[in-house]
Amino acid sequence: MGISRDSRHKRSHTGAKRAQYRKKRKFELGRQSGNTKLGIKRIHEVRVRGGNRKFRALRLDSGNFSWGSEAISKKTRLIAVVYNASNNELVRTNTLVKGAVIQIDATPFRQWYEAHYAQPLGRRKAKKDGQVESEELSKKRSNHVKRKIDSRKEEAKVDPILEDQFATGRLYAIISSRPGQSGRCDGYILEGKELEFYVRKIKSKK
Amino acid sequence: MSEQIEKAFQKQPGIFVNAKAIGKKAKTKNQRWYKDVGLGFKTPKEAIEGHYIDKKCPWAGMVSIRGRILTGVVMSTKMKRTVIVRREYLHYITKYNRYEKRHKNLAAHLSPAFIGVQPGDTVTVGQCR
């Protein structure tokens, strides 16, 4: 392929041009970038130095995302790439990289919340007569479980900005794994100051 | 805060700042991670109490200081978060039994913990790579 990661081809710190005195070595090799896109899962395995493997994800559609303040993680579908601090091109082509802000499916988190706190989350306030209460909310619970849920009542408050996102069914999350190295797209849901920061960036770009 | 200048959100990677505020126990104190670099260097107050985010700061960032510790005189502070340090030394010429003055310039990272660094100040530089 010819991609090498050496510094011998670059000018030195003083600006001097370095003469070539040896060929490229295998330990200096570089490989083509994975450019992981959104789509049906496609992962290639690569044999790397020392006999170990790297999983180059070429297409991914789901990942394990954590909700930090609730300390849980759920496997979710990825919907779209929304912001990338380095390159807008990566947003347009929906490329998954570490540090990209994406939208993920909110349903696993909402289901967990409603089962854990027995309170509705992100339900539309609009009058819907035919609306059946979700299975988690109206489930019959034993006394022991009911007492546990009562003791969690004060902690059940969710940030209003997050609640709006639950109403639309899409949460903003940021990728914290490296899909081209580990083959996974994992990350965490944006909250607090970080969420405000990125929401502002996204809005100012539109 | 004013330290969010870049396109990506600047933060210290280890700190989780979004814990739910459980009523009275809201932690309003500045949640910050810092470390002691060792070798007898005192960690500056600004590194502990400040709000800057610098991943290359020895106290509030992800670098470890090991190896050589050098000193020199600051020549210029025009770069963002770096200074040029001038180190003078004498080189001995054996034929004439005399010395000549030589100098080397060294670019070093200047943590935001140090405020008011001017050309002419003496600094200590630690090796990190």
From TrEMBL, chain A:
Keyword terms, alphabetized: Ribonucleoprotein, Ribosomal protein
InterPro entries membership: Ribosomal_eS8, Ribosomal_eS8_CS, Ribosomal_protein_eS8_euk, Ribosomal_Se8/biogenesis_NSA2
Gene Ontology terms: cellular component: ribonucleoprotein complex; ribosome
GO MF, one annotated term: structural constituent of ribosome
Region (Disordered) location: 1-26, 124-152
Similarity remark: Belongs to the eukaryotic ribosomal protein eS8 family.
Name the UniProt record assigns to this protein: 40S ribosomal protein S8
TrEMBL record, chain B:
GO molecular function terms attached to this record: RNA binding; structural constituent of ribosome
Principal subcellular localization: cytoplasm
GO aspect biological process, one term: translation
Pfam families for this protein: Ribosomal_S17, Ribosomal_S17_N
InterPro entries: NA-bd_OB-fold, Ribosomal_uS17, Ribosomal_uS17_N
Family that this chain belongs to: Belongs to the universal ribosomal protein uS17 family.
Protein name: Small ribosomal subunit protein uS17
UniProt source species: Funneliformis mosseae
